[in-house]
Write a structure and sequence with these properties.
mainly alpha
C-alpha cells in the first residue's frame, strides 16, 4: 500500500509539472489513467478508465477566467479506487467527477490566497531589480503551492481506499445501472462543451459530414480511424490550396499596384 501511495504521489508530481514542459497535456486522463493502472497492476483497466474520463473532461479547458475541475486529482483517485474495488469505468467516472470538483474548491481556498501574496512579492522583487528572485517566484514557488494541495490525493488513497472499496461493493444493482447510464451521457456532455468552444459555420459542415459518414457507413467497414485519415487528407488539401490562393491574390494585387501607383 505504501509503495502504491508513493508512486501515485509521483504521478501527481508529474501531472503538476506539466507547465514546466510548455503545456504538454500530460495531466489529461488519457495519459494519467494508464499510469495509475500500471502502478496498481492493471494497465488495461487504467487505459479504459482514463479514456472514459477523457471523454467526460474533453471540454474541460481553462479559458479566460474559467477554471475547470481538477481532472488530475479526479483521474488519479477515481481510477485508483475503481481498480482496487474491482469495478469498471463507470465507477471511476462516478468517483472522478466529484473528486475533481472538490479538489478544485480546495485548491482555490488554499492556493489562491498564497498566489495573491506571491504576486505582491514578485512585484516587489521586480521593483528592487531582483530578477532572479522574480523568476523563482513565478516558476518554483507556485509549483510548491500546487504540491501542498496535491498531497491530499496520495493521503486520501492511503487512508480511504479500503472504505471506498467496501462502499463500492455495497452499491445496489439499480444504482449501478443508473451509474452506467450516466456514464454514457457524460462523454456526450464533454463533447458538447468542446463543440461549444470550437463550432462555427466553417467547421460545422465537416463535423456533421464525419458524424453521418460513421452513422451510415459503419456497417460497410468504415471506422472512426478511417474517417480521421480522410479528415487529415481533406485538411491538408485545404491548407495547401489556401496558400496557393493567397499567393495568387498577392501577386495580382502587386501587379495592379504597379499600374495604379501613378494615381
Amino acid at each position: 500500500m505504501l509503495r502504491e501511495t508513493m508512486l501515485l504521489a509521483l504521478i501527481m508530481l508529474l501531472g503538476r509539472a506539466e507547465f514546466f514542459l510548455g503545456t504538454a497535456l500530460i495531466q489529461r486522463p488519457i495519459v494519467i489513467g494508464p499510469l495509475v493502472g500500471l502502478v496498481l497492476g492493471d494497465f488495461q483497466a487504467g487505459l479504459i478508465m482514463g479514456a472514459t474520463l477523457e471523454l467526460a473532461f474533453i471540454g474541460a479547458v481553462s479559458i479566460g477566467s474559467y477554471i475547470p475541475p481538477d481532472m488530475l486529482s479526479g483521474t488519479v483517485l477515481g481510477v485508483a479506487f475503481a481498480i482496487k474495488a474491482g469495478s469498471g469505468p463507470e465507477a471511476a467516472l462516478t468517483l472522478g467527477m466529484p473528486i475533481a470538483s472538490l479538489m478544485l474548491a480546495l485548491r482555490t481556498i488554499i492556493g489562491s490566497p498564497l498566489l495573491v501574496a506571491l504576486g505582491h512579492l514578485a512585484d516587489k522583487h521586480v521593483a528592487d531589480g531582483k530578477y532572479k528572485m522574480f523568476s523563482f517566484d513565478v516558476l518554483v514557488i507556485p509549483f510548491f503551492i500546487e504540491m501542498i494541495t496535491s498531497c491530499v490525493v496520495p493521503i486520501a488513497y492511503y487512508f480511504g481506499s479500503d472504505a471506498v472499496t467496501n462502499a463500492l461493493g455495497g452499491i445496489p444493482e439499480f444504482v449501478t445501472t443508473g451509474i452506467e447510464i450516466a456514464t454514457g451521457m457524460l462523454p456526450a456532455l464533454g463533447f458538447a462543451m468542446l463543440a461549444q468552444m470550437i463550432m462555427n459555420k466553417k467547421v460545422a459542415p465537416y463535423f456533421f459530414m464525419g458524424y453521418f459518414l460513421l452513422a451510415y457507413f459503419s456497417n460497410s467497414g468504415l471506422t472512426t480511424t478511417g474517417i480521421a485519415i480522410f479528415s487529415i487528407i481533406i485538411a491538408a488539401i485545404g491548407f495547401f490550396k489556401q496558400d496557393e490562393v493567397q499567393n495568387v491574390a498577392y501577386t495580382s494585387s502587386e501587379q495592379e499596384g504597379y499600374v495604379l501607383d501613378e494615381f
